[in-house]
Amino acid sequence: MRSAVPDLHPVTRASFVSNPRFTTWPSILVWPGSTTGLLTRTFYFHPAPVWPRRYGPFAKTIDLDFVTNAIDDRDEIHVVTNSDEVLQTNLDLEGHLPNFLGHGPLEVAKVATWVGEHADALHRWLFVNFAIRIHADELDPEREAASASAERLTHDIIARVPAG
Questions:
Q1: How many Cα atoms are found within 13 Å in the side-chain-facing hemisphere of 66?
Q2: Quick check: is 58 in a domain?
Q3: CA 49 centroid distance within chain
Q4: What is the pLDDT of residues 89-106, one digit of tens each?
Q5: Is 72 contained in some domain?
Q6: What is the dihedral sign for C-alpha 152, 156, 157, 158?
Q7: How many CB atoms lie within 10 A of CB 69?
Q8: Which helix (H) or strand (E) holds 50?
Q9: How many domains, in total, are found in the chain?
């Protein structure tokens, strides 16, 4: 993490809540916790491994609707919340820029609308209940301040999700 944080991909940087060009696809929100760490809240977790309790079709992707259709009980889900346990990275080419780079700062109402359109009940539950700490050093007060900020914004977003 010590070497990764300074060189994050532009799409990841667009997910930083303080980015003046915040992402148009807010499936993950990122708070810098220090120079060697990040705190994230995400809607789409990458499941591994999964022992399906139900077998049925899933229409989209493993992180979008497979888990929702494969499990009956949220208590069976283990979420890794600390990079000391597991860390997954993505090695995209720097020039790989899907249309996720925004044109303005994070707007809670826009994120809430995105949630209403793209996040089911399980995704919302994961987003609210699990903050992921990615770090190279011990957790410090800077990261705890990021955690408090993340908690407030998380609840503000969910409170504004349109009904329906």
A1: 13
A2: no
A3: 19
A4: 666 666 666 677 888 999
A5: no
A6: positive
A7: 15
A8: none
A9: 1
CA atoms within 13 A on the CB side of 64: 8
Position 65 in a domain: no
Domain range enclosing 15: 5-44+78-159
63 versus 76: the higher-pLDDT residue is 76
Residue 128 structure tokens? 């609210």
For 107-133, b/e burial (b = at least 16 CB within 10 A) is eeebbbebbeeebeebbbebbeeebbb
pTM of this structure:
0.83
Q: Can you say how many angstroms the Cα of residue 89 is from the centroid of all Cα atoms in its chain?
A: 13
Place of tokens 């249309």: 99
pLDDT tens digit string along 16-63? 999 999 999 999 999 987 666 888 999 988 766 777 777 767 666 666
- Domain assignment of residue 61, yes or no: no
